[in-house]
User: Which sequence fits this backbone?
């Protein structure tokens, strides 16, 4: 180990962070650490709600930045970099961290200092990352996290000795309890220049050498690894038990499923009532005009129809948050892995796909836990095939109108229930077939082995969970306030123009009606008429919109839900049986959800995948509906 | 060449070994070795493939351990595992698994990682002798 990295031993010449001139831009401090080291907990501790989430420019990896108030009234910007095991730039995450540290990533200034956060209960492995980070030569604080766990299990480490060995300040902290954070704030206020370390840095690409270096550093600091976490072993004996494990897994799945479906229902109904009531209240305040119609029907109705999904999304993320923070999600992924592997996916795809039965939007947001990029994109692409709750209004309307309520297997399974189950199965088959297709072609596995770290079980903290929920709510509402708002306004305009004697036209005479007539030749082979065409176009924004649109077109009361017998009868007269089945098949496959398109664009970092996905799903929906209509004639 | 057991008899072998560790009495030990040799005799030589010998991580059962010898994986994948502690010479303990034994959790250097059998089979172990 004579060959030392040249900048590792040199003393940094950068000025202390807080001592910079008032006119200078705020200091940028990067937080780096291996996965499960408590990086995000520390980031949340330091920044609280003063953070924002975005993607790194040009890539899909999430970038979180936050502001911290410094002692002299100035601010520092914190960047939470992706969790990583090394700086070898083998994965996208590592490449980004590497680029950010070198100042090579456009749009992100080179950090002035680094906080390297390591798990103190696992220093032998985590100190490995200290070598390449210290080699960067920037002022670095080494924060040894989970101090409470370390001492609780009988481990110890001499912070000063480690600091001397590595030539950088070292702090023992507990981010979840907020202990030892004074040292971190002190560092933020005055990032210390690096001293000459007692130990030379190892050759970075020699991993066994680096391991020996890390072990020596630990030894020199009197590091005693803590006793194994007995609770984790005991809980694993239950959660990964050959019989009890899968049973608990199924119970958890049912609990998530049920909460997304039924627990969110009263909240969603309440929010919906609030949207309708407030819309009416605003309408009553304004004079009857085009502007009022735009505001109440276009903006309020359109955005409101999406905002009502917020409780569902938050409940889902609360569950996922508890599962993830407690450490159970890793075990669930292990149990689900073999089943998922059959379609070419992996254990980590399981929870997102399950969530997609509630709503594809939070499901796609939760694919962040899948590190393998191709598996993640494959999961995103198949998630909208899962039967989400927005499909239920049209399913129940058409089934009630066309399928007789005849028992098939006793009183429990009627033809109507069987049809609904059939539609769930249809979506599932489409998802599985698409996954197989993708994983055997464009998204063929990258041959990255499935490596899943099993973190020790921990109690999720209220603070961590609530910050996570606020974060997701912000992301969702921002989209509802931009993309959905735009689409809602456009749809309203198409439905309300051209004006006839200063009044909105009938649906048939509106631009929307003309478009419906224009697309009629295209959808005629599916057994649809122009009215269904208008419904399909209106439901491009959100699937459930079609019920209200059909209600308006058929001159029925749109708010009277799917139990509306009048609408059922009107559709039954207007649509053939083949056309009705085709409509169900179309909705099972088509990607009629602007929210999903928007979130896919955001999560994949461009229009390529949402465009492919939209074209593929629409094509499949058209082909499926065509076949259904032709076969059932 | 000492031949171990055919796959179908591995379970018996394992149960006996566990029994051995639980009660370290000479009688049990002697009894176990008698059974062991009887079993060995009853197994035909062609039913003793090399794989039956626990030559990789995939052959370890819960609670068993082995010393890693080499990683027969492409460089970048091997390096990733080495960073996590799967270094030649490291002592690796097999822990719980998903139903059916795949993927399985392995304990190395104070951390736990789940690996699929296809990966574990490429992490070769040192001969126990």
Assistant:
């Amino acid at each position: 180990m004579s060959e030392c990295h040249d900048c590792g031993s040199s003393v940094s010449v950068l000025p202390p962070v807080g001592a910079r001139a008032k006119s200078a831009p705020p200091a940028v401090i990067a937080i780096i650490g291996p996965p499960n080291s408590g990086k995000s907990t520390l980031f949340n501790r330091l920044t609280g709600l003063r953070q924002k989430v975005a993607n790194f420019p040009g890539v899909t990896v999430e970038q979180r930045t936050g502001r911290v108030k410094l002692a002299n009234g100035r601010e520092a910007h914190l960047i939470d970099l992706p969790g990583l095991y090394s700086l070898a730039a083998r994965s996208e995450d590592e490449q980004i961290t590497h680029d950010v540290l070198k100042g090579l990533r456009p749009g992100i200034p080179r950090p002035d200092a680094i906080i390297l956060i390591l798990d103190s209960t696992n220093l032998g492995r985590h100190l490995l990352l200290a070598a390449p980070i210290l080699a960067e030569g920037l002022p670095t604080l080494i924060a040894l996290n989970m101090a409470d766990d370390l001492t609780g299990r009988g481990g110890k480490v001499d912070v000063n000795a480690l600091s001397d060995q590595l030539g950088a300040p070292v702090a023992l902290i507990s981010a979840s309890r907020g202990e030892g954070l004074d040292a971190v704030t002190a560092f933020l206020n005055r990032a210390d220049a690096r001293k000459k370390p007692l130990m030379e840095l190892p050759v970075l690409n020699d991993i066994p050498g680096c391991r020996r270096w890390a072990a020596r550093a630990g030894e020199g600091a009197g590091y005693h690894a803590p006793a194994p976490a007995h609770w984790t072993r005991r809980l694993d004996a239950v959660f990964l038990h050959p019989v009890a494990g899968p049973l608990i897994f199924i119970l958890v799945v049912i609990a998530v499923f049920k909460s997304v479906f039924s627990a969110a229902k009263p909240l969603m109904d309440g929010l919906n009532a609030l949207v309708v009531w407030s819309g009416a209240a605003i309408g009553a305040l304004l004079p009857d005009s085009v502007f009022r119609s735009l505001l109440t029907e276009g903006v309020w109705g359109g955005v409101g129809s999406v905002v009502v999904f917020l409780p569902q999304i938050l409940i889902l993320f609360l569950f996922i948050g508890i599962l993830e923070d407690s450490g159970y999600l890793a075990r669930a992924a292990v149990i689900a892995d073999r089943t998922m592997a059959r379609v070419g996916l992996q254990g980590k795809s399981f929870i997102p796909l399950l969530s997609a039965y509630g709503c594809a939007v939070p499901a796609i947001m939760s694919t962040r836990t899948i590190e393998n990029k191709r598996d993640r994109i494959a999961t995103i692409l198949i998630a909208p095939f899962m039967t989400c709750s927005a499909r239920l209004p049209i399913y129940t309307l058409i089934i009630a109108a066309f399928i007789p309520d005849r028992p098939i297997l006793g009183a429990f399974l009627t033809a109507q229930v069987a049809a609904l189950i059939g539609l769930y199965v249809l979506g599932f088959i489409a998802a599985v077939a698409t996954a197989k297709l993708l994983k055997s072609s464009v998204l063929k596995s990258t041959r990255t082995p499935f490596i899943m770290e099993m973190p020790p079980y921990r109690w999720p903290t209220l603070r961590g969970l609530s910050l996570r929920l606020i974060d997701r709510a912000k992301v969702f509402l921002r989209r509802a306030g931009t993309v959905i708002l735009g689409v809602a306004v456009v749809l309203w305009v198409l439905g309300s123009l051209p004006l006839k004697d200063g009044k909105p036209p009938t649906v048939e005479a509106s631009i929307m009606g003309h478009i419906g007539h224009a697309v009629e030749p295209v959808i005629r082979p599916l057994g649809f008429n122009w009215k269904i065409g208008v419904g399909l176009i209106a439901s491009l924004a959100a699937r459930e919109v079609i019920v209200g649109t059909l209600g308006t077109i058929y001159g029925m009361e749109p708010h009277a839900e799917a139990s509306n017998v009048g609408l059922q009868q009107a559709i039954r007269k207007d649509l053939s049986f083949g056309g009705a089945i085709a409509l169900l098949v179309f909705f099972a496959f088509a990607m009629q959800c602007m929210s999903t398109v928007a979130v896919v664009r955001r999560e994949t970092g461009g229009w390529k995948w949402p465009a492919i996905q939209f074209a593929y799903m629409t094509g499949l929906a058209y082909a499926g509906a065509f076949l259904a209509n032709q076969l059932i004639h | 060449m000492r031949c171990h057991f055919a796959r179908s008899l591995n379970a018996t072998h394992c149960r006996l070994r566990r029994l051995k560790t639980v009660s370290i009495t000479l009688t049990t030990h002697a009894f176990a070795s008698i059974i062991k040799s009887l079993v060995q005799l009853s197994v035909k030589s062609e039913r003793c493939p090399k794989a039956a010998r626990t030559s990789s991580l995939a052959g370890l059962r819960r609670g068993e351990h082995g010393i890693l010898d080499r990683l027969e994986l492409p460089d970048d994948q091997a390096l990733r595992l080495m960073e996590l502690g799967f270094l030649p010479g490291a002592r690796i303990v097999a822990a719980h698994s998903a139903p059916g034994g795949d993927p399985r959790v392995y304990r190395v250097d104070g951390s736990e990682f789940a690996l699929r059998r296809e990966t574990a089979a490429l992490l070769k172990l040192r001969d126990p002798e």
